[in-house]
Amino acid sequence: MDFDLVRHRFEPLVRRLLHIYWRFARGLTVGVRAVVFDAQGRVFLVKHSYVAGWHLPGGGVEFGETLTAALERELREEGNIELIDPPQLFAIYFNRRASRRDHVALYIVRSFRQTAPPQPNREIIAHGFFSSEALPAGTTRATRERVAEALDGRTGAEIW
User: Fold this and answer.
1) What is the residue range of 44's domain?
2) How many domains does the chain have?
3) pLDDT (tens digit per residue) in 28-43
4) Which of 62, 153, 156, 160 has the most CB atoms in a 10 Å sphere around its CB?
5) CA gap 70, 77 in Å, rounded
6) Total-model pTM
7) Is 118 buried (19+), middle (13-18) or exposed (0-12) by CB count in 10 A?
8) Which DSSP helix (H) or strand (E) runs through 15?
9) Would residue 157 count as lying in a domain?
């Protein structure tokens, strides 16, 4: 069975079911993502098992959780990345592709340590640091745009 074909076929259904759940569980959905630059200026990206493409690490903010705490949790879970200095809030975007109530806070991270190389798991099937000029095939449009904006130092849009 071709895993990519199965994922591609069921991705819209899974995304829709999650957002139906979130509609009742949360009035407004808020997520966090980070552009994590290593010492060589490369960007950390992840590839999920449940959605196609390469993405910036991050995820949803849980009840009672601050944006920074959510970012720290997601970076630990997805990349074994621990912050040394506070991340820089770069911009907040409206993510209408996810839902009409979804917003994403984007942070820039330059001061961190990676405690161990992350191992693929049920959620994250691949990861790595990539040159901004040579992002992997399949990197999403939004990810490419956010990386370019971070490098330029200014946001290009309010829409994810």
Assistant:
1) 3-152
2) 1
3) 889 999 999 999 999 9
4) 160
5) 10
6) 0.82
7) buried
8) helix 3-25
9) no
